[in-house]
Specification:
alpha+beta, 6-stranded antiparallel sheet, 3 helices
Length: 171
């Protein structure tokens, strides 16, 4: 179970709330927690980089303009957001995100443009971070949700190293 102290600390970090009025021990705790976010939930991967700084996420894909997501309002990311979140030719907007340090993941919530629905469809993307031997890996799982079911799910794994799978030789 997550403590109220952790929930409050994540809210202060997420919304970039000023810390100058807080007690020193709380400021130090926030500094440590934000350090964990930067070390465990960010990175440079084969075709995308993730950065957390002062209450905002910055994503940069190869040969693309950076995409920035701040908490506290709608972030209209346009087609660049669609490309980032694996739905090319769709416009994505993000309304909120959740940081889960224990599970090492970030979940983004918003809307995805749709030809069939003028208001768009509910969108969710979960980015989880793992280490496989010495290689850091990040899995992105994005989904568009209909009334009662997932309509479209797309997944991709990014890594810090370029590697190729080689099948076992047959005997």
């Amino acid at each position: 179970m997550v403590s109220l102290r952790n929930i409050s600390s994540l809210a202060i970090i997420k919304y970039g709330i000023a810390r100058d009025e807080l007690p020193r021990d709380v400021i130090e705790e926030l500094r440590i927690m934000e350090g964990r976010i930067k070390s465990e939930l960010t990175g440079e991967f084969t075709s995308v980089s993730f950065v957390w700084d002062n209450g905002e996420w910055r994503f940069r894909m190869l040969n693309q303009q950076p995409v920035t997501i701040r908490s506290g309002g709608r972030n209209s990311l346009g087609l660049a957001g669609g490309k980032l979140f694996l739905f090319d030719d769709r416009k994505i907007s993000i309304d909120d995100f959740k940081i889960d340090l224990k599970e090492r993941r970030i979940t983004f919530y918003g809307m995805c443009s749709s030809v069939k629905n003028a208001d768009g469809r509910v969108f969710k993307s979960t980015i989880s971070f793992n280490k496989v031997h010495y290689i850091d890996a990040m899995k992105m799982s994005s989904e568009v949700v209909g009334e009662h079911e997932k309509l479209n799910v797309r997944e991709r794994i990014f890594s810090t190293a370029v590697f190729h799978f080689q099948p076992e030789p047959e005997l």
